[in-house]
Structure prediction request, 469 residues.
Amino acid sequence: MPLRTVTLESMTTSAVPLVQARHVGTAIPGPRSKALHAQRADQVSSGFGVTLPVFIDRAEGGILQDVDGNRFIDFASGIAVTSVGATHPMVQARVAEQLGKFTHTCYMVTEYDSFTKVAAWLNKHVPGNFDKRTALFSTGAEAVENAIKIARAATGRNKVLVFEDAYHGRSLLTMAMTAKENPYKMNFGPFPGEVLRAATSTSLQSKTTDPGEATAEALMQVERLITAQGSDGFAAMVIEPIQGEGGFIVPAPGFLAALREIATRNGIVFVVDEIQSGMGRTGKLFASEYEGIAGDITLTAKALAGGLPLSAVTGRTELMNAVHAGGLGGTYAGNPLACAAALGVFDAFEDGILLENARTIEVTTREMLEPLLKEVDAVGDIRGRGAMLALEFVDPTTKMPRPDLAAAINAHCHQQGVLTLVCGTNGNVIRLLPPLVIAHGLLLDGLAVLRDAIVAESRILPSTGVTIL
Ligand SMILES: Cc1ncc(COP(=O)(O)O)c(C=O)c1O
Prediction:
């Protein structure tokens, strides 16, 4: 079934729609991008890395156009942010209207109603058949930090339980919660204490190949950790329903429900981090719906406001109201332009087409790429849900990660005008996060480029059976 396309004319308010076709007219990066990158190096901290050093001039539908006129198929969506596209007319209209009125008052100084409207939509749509309240912030890490503040205030406890391969952000507390050392944590310690890590249910490198056994082992480890730390020690257990930066790891069926039960039994606030997996990315509004679970607190950000900075903590009223007045906030928390953009995103999801598109993207991608599981021995896994899919590259004999191959395939795609991203604790996973408005032909073209890159690069860099980490 083809993707439901939103016509180009309706995808932009600009007079000339951006051509929805891949085009590589210069070396990548092109001369203008190279010149701008040289200027950047003179002005910007080198602490910022870059996946593909091209400077973007326009973005629309499934295309990013750079300053040299090259057009890239967007399989990144600004890391799962522009799910409704970078120029959705419903978002543009709401933001333009708000821009004409005011840009900022600070919600803690004077109020505006769009904040309440965003909260009401989230209270209604976030999983959980209970009374909820929402607090808005700007970044994902801020949402995570505030969830911990709320859980601590509500429980009077302080420890935080997180998982292997987790990613929760780059602030000091969320760095402690994130698993991967390089580049996220290296040189930045010491980190806040009271953050303890347990195993997850699935990994290609796991000691057992039986998923049931891996899940049982992981759950036993969680129980042991809670017992060892004292069952009244943990304020919060935080998990991504599909781990994003860690490698698009889908938990084994039943793992999340078992964690939910353990949290309830021990009075621990169960926090579901839907910052990357939420807001329609997986074909449902929230990935936790696939497992039939609800967090006591659920976190959203990224795609929530279609590119404007907005994050949310939505949870049980008794938790969200356990904090003293003035205990939550931030100068830009729930900025009015970002709230307007979120209302535009909600409008865009209203007819269900984008959720359907996410599911169609999964079907199309699996049809195109799953044959590689048999054809290319280094393709270890193709996994994910909806438009949150990834390929893992491993040595077929040792099952050791192949970050070298993932990097080469990624670079190959970039040269051909397809923007892919690498992720995974071992850097051996290529993830696909196309905007849900991508045209069907564009998706097929991008996938064909990726497939050819995998075949070509795995011939140049064949598996050796030797550990290459
Ligand atoms: C699951 C998850 N949590 C938290 C964050 C942090 O969000 P931000 O970068 O907006 O602080 C991210 C960002 O990638 C994420 O994927």
